[in-house]
Amino acid sequence: MINIDTITRLHELLGYDKPIHPLITLIDINNIQFSSKYENRQMVVGFYTISLKDGHNCKFKYGRQYYDFSEGSMMFTAPGQVGTVEHTPSDAKGWMLCFHPDLIRKSQLNSKIKEYTFFSYDSSEALHLSEQEEETINNIVNTIKEEINENSDIYSDELIVSNLEVLLNYARRFYGRQFITRNSANKDVISRFETFLTDYFQSKDLVDNGLPTVKYLAGKMGYSTNYLSDVLKKETGKNTQEHIHFQLIEKAKSLLLSTEESVAQVAYTLGFEYPGHFSKLFKKKTGMSPSEYRR
């Protein structure tokens, strides 16, 4: 396991000179001189990365689903994620923008960074850009590059962070477009998800294993937790957790009206360790306690 916790360390591994700015850098993928001894080695990166790779020249695997656009593919990773470096073809094109959390620590972006859920998507859930979208992204990145290369002053970091936020806002907009253009594929995802969740609540898995977690369901569907929740939210208005609660309440209503089991026993049947937690959730979702609903 290789730990890359600073921008300087990253430059060393990639065969780059010492970085101009200690907290942010823009790497030209075509200029990477990565030692073969590091290939297929797992590594943990201590900073955020935003990368754009040319889909025509760079053989990176993104392929769990079809491509909407092939002009370019963007990928985002957050600090602490584990990745594996694979062989980079000699004709690879693109860039990788890396910034340390300390760069945004004192800014408003620090409190908003969790809202950009695509930092936790899998590589197969990359953002595929149209030609116009790619031009927009590259223009912002070039502005950031100019600020990095300029002589630093009291405004430099503030301008860099401001442009980073603009870049992330455009990425969020373009992901929204991608969710729409993948409408038919997304409907298939939703159909499979709802079928799987319904079957789970009807099976003995509920009693044996308890309530399914968001992570468990995303894994069964073959997606990252954030990507699945974002697709569901876009198409149905409810995220993964809200879908779980909906199925739970529907199952609870059926048990309360079709059996004479106590409220506590219903709670245990639904996978709750503490009946009070079930009653609290039921009242929050329906406006009534389980006993009131039964009456």
Automatic annotation (TrEMBL):
Keywords: DNA-binding, Transcription, Transcription regulation. GO terms for molecular function: DNA-binding transcription factor activity; sequence-specific DNA binding. SMART domains: HTH_ARAC. Residues 191-295 form the HTH araC/xylS-type domain. PROSITE patterns: HTH_ARAC_FAMILY_2 (PS01124). Signal peptide: none annotated. The keyword DNA-binding applies. This is AraC family transcriptional regulator.
